[in-house]
Write a structure and sequence with these properties.
Layout (H helix, E strand, L loop, with lengths): L2 H5 L3 E4 L3 H13 L5 E4 L5 H8 L3 E4 L8 H11 L7 E5 L4 H9 L4 E4 L4 H55 L7 H16 L4 H10 L12 H4 L7 H8 L1 H8 L6 H12 L20 H16 L10 H10 L7 H9 L1 H10 L10
Parallel strand pairs: 1-2, 1-3, 3-4, 4-5
Helix pairs in contact: 3-4, 6-7, 7-8, 7-13, 7-15, 7-16, 8-12, 11-12, 12-13, 13-14
């Protein structure tokens, strides 16, 4: 360890006797220490400690107004993530006092009159431990920050991959890909309106773009068919739900579990008449129930090359007819409350299709 690390250390002397303060200052100066603070007023110690963060406090015990034990109690309240670096120097060198001081948080104890050589050695030993402790604590903080930053980066990357894959899947039957943006934003609004936990609202926002990822496994002749699907074609179309859940399987992170639930459940209906499993009520994940409302609304009110968009009022009227059938009643009521914000999102992320001449 570099000698300057010791000699540059901040040392705070606390003693109500001026002669003791002067003696300690002389001892430290002769030993090469240059960063020395002192006070004869015990009531000033707490503010000095918080302001200067000394590596070592040389503390007398017997002082007026506030003794050394009271000071150590104050310092403990400030030094919540470390120990108080106190070396007690006192004329009352009795085992009971020594034990009490060490129990109160002092790291070492010296009786007066002081032996200069011993004082210098004890101070150096304590500073070595304190400096190493601070280095270790700072290194741990740096490592924790790096781990936190890396974890955040990985989470953001995972969310971005999910979002982009969701849009990529959507491009197969929607050339703008804006459906997944609108629907995920709607879903977040609805989850928030239902007072779901904030973290769950964000999971729904970030996971819902993958709701139709299974469509990448549906043949174009079915997925892009402009007219009504035949019965056998419809059965193939419905497999996109299980395909999507399979694509999203194999990872148990909260984000992927939410995405898998949404892919698996967003075509289930409250009354059990949906697919693929015919689940009903709360058998359907809350993520799937939320997305079911928002997905249907956006599908109804969005233009496609093969259909015109419904007016919002017409879509809402039809959905209200489906309350308790397709949709959980409470969710539908909450969604209707969010319509002013929903319409702002629709205006921001519109779909535009080129007119193709016959």
């Amino acid at each position: 360890m570099n000698q300057n690390e010791y000699l540059d250390s901040k040392i705070l002397i606390v003693d109500d006797q001026a002669s003791n303060v002067i003696l300690l200052q002389q001892i430290l100066t002769q030993a090469g220490y240059t960063n020395i603070l002192s006070t004869q007023n015990p009531l000033e110690v707490l503010e000095l400690y918080k302001k200067h963060k000394p590596e070592l406090v040389l503390l007398d015990l017997n002082m007026p107004h506030l003794d050394g034990f009271g000071i150590m109690k104050q310092l403990k309240e400030v030094e919540t993530d470390s120990y108080i670096p106190v070396l007690v120097l006192t004329a009352v060198d009795h085992p009971t006092i020594r034990h009490r001081a060490l129990s109160a948080g002092a790291r070492d104890f010296l009786g007066k009159p002081l032996d200069v050589s011993e004082v210098v050695c004890r101070i150096r030993n304590m500073l070595e431990v304190r400096i190493l402790h601070n280095k270790h604590r700072n290194l741990n903080q740096i490592l924790e920050e790096q781990v936190r930053a890396r974890t955040q980066e990985l989470e953001e990357t995972r969310q971005e991959v999910i979002h982009r894959l969701g849009r990529a899947g959507e491009y197969r039957d929607n050339e703008t890909g804006n459906h997944v943006i609108r629907m995920s934003q709607f879903s977040f609004l609805l989850a928030r309106e239902m007072r779901l936990p904030a973290k769950q609202c964000l999971l729904i926002l970030n996971a819902s773009p993958m709701h139709d990822i299974g469509k990448i496994g549906i043949p174009d002749k079915i997925l892009l068919k402009p007219g009504k699907l035949e019965a056998d074609e419809w059965e193939i179309m419905k497999t996109h739900v299980n395909k999507g859940a399979e694509i999203l399987s194999g990872n148990d992170s909260k984000l992927m579990v939410a995405a898998r639930n949404i892919a698996q459940h967003h075509h289930e209906k409250w009354d059990g008449s949906g697919y693929p499993e015919g689940l009903s009520g709360e058998e359907i994940s809350i993520e799937g129930r939320v997305v079911a409302v928002c997905d249907v609304f956006d599908a109804l009110t969005s233009e496609r090359p093969y259909k015109k968009a419904w007016e919002v009022d017409d879509a809402v009227s039809w959905m209200q007819d489906q309350k308790g059938k397709h949709f959980q009643p409470e969710l539908l009521d909450a969604f209707i409350k969010t319509l002013p914000e929903v319409n702002k999102i629709r205006d921001e992320f519109t779909d535009t299709f080129e007119k193709v001449s016959p």
